[in-house]
Design a protein that fits this description.
disordered N terminus; disordered C terminus
């Protein structure tokens, strides 16, 4: 063993040499099997060794583990470190790692977070027998980069299971089973499910029409659908800010809708500072509101993507100073310090809700 290392071989290469030597020996080259194996390229030795291992599995009546031919990650394109693979089986199964399934839904980074969530009280009775069986028996497969290191065994799930899980999560959410801290799981499930459906039907049309989409096009399309879904289901105005306004301005809570005062507060404390800092946001929204067909639409629905980012920042700052203020006077003092003069705008004719 030491001699082999002195010749420049790594331990994994020695294993490959040994397996290749055994395979060559079985073909009638017993005396010179190891010597012949060492003369082969590392790639050829790995190929012979893998074939020999699979042959022994078959002889023992066992199915060899499938191998992943490709590996990727959601990290660069979507910011989430979710590993994905394509297997060498007849279905070319698309697989997401067990920990990746959990991260896609916004669960903990722990590898068992995904099965634990699906076994939780909230999901009891929601996850069907077929889906539960698949979750309890994750796919096992080999992945190797093709370098000197031997393949490693990975646990994962058929990627289509994520769609079934998302449907189950949304059913649990509709039945009021999810806890407050699990709302993000429902939100992510909704985004994934709808984006996948849109991307899937687009891919089907491409295939039927004979159009071969590039990898970049497929990723770009899915990213677009994810953004659309995130915007559809993302609530821009936090309930906490409204609660603080009720407290600071001593407003009664109506049974329906929100107080008329909130319209003025939203315009004066949210949109006017945004207009000062971003230039044309207020003018754009006012022009849209003057369109008769858009008369009752909310102002923030007309903000650009850049404007939405600015809106979130503005709302976060308002909520921060509201929480530290003990009175309306203190709150408005903080507001003027942070944003300057408070303006009152003539928006009485634009509807009761902003």
């Amino acid at each position: 063993m030491t001699d082999n290392l002195d010749d420049g071989q790594t331990p994994s290469e020695i294993i490959g040499t040994s397996e290749a030597a055994k395979a060559l020996s079985s073909l009638g080259a017993s005396k010179g099997g190891e010597a012949r194996a060492r003369k082969l390229s590392p790639e050829r030795r790995r190929e012979i060794a893998q074939t020999a291992i699979e042959a022994r599995w078959a002889k023992a009546g066992k199915e060899p583990l499938p191998r992943a031919t490709h590996k990727g990650s959601f990290k660069e394109e979507f910011g989430t470190d979710v590993d994905c693979y394509v297997l060498n089986d007849t279905q070319k199964t698309a697989v997401i790692s067990q920990s990746g399934m959990g991260q896609a839904l916004g669960l903990s980074l722990r590898g068992n977070a995904f099965p634990r969530f699906l076994s939780s009280k909230a999901m009891t009775g929601i996850v069907g027998a077929d889906l539960r069986e698949k979750i309890e028996k994750p796919l096992r497969f080999q992945w190797g980069s093709g370098g000197a290191a031997p393949p490693v065994m990975v646990h994962g799930f058929d990627a289509t299971i994520l769609v079934d899980v998302c449907k189950a999560v949304l059913q649990a959410d509709a039945e009021g089973r999810l806890a407050k801290n699990q709302e993000v799981v429902a939100r992510n499930a909704r985004i994934i499910l709808n984006a996948s459906a849109k991307a899937g039907i687009k891919g089907l049309v491409y295939a039927l029409a004979g159009y071969d989409a590039t990898k970049e096009e497929v990723i770009a399309a899915f990213k677009l659908y994810v953004r659309e879904e995130a915007r559809d289901y993302e609530k821009e105005f936090p309930d906490q800010l409204y609660e603080e306004w009720y407290r600071l301005y001593q407003l009664p809570k109506p049974e329906r809708n929100k107080p008329w005062k909130f319209k003025h507060l939203t315009i004066d404390q949210v949109y006017r500072p945004l207009a000062k800092s971003r230039g044309k946001i207020l003018e754009l929204t006012k022009a849209q509101r003057e369109n008769r067909n858009a008369l009752w639409k909310k102002l923030h629905q007309f903000l650009s993507e850049i404007g939405v980012k600015a809106l979130r920042t503005q709302l976060g700052q308002l909520l921060g100073i509201a929480r530290i203020s003990k009175s309306r006077q203190e709150y408005e003092g903080h507001f003027q310090t942070l944003f300057g003069e408070q303006f009152i705008l003539p928006y009485e004719d634009l509807g009761s809700n902003s």
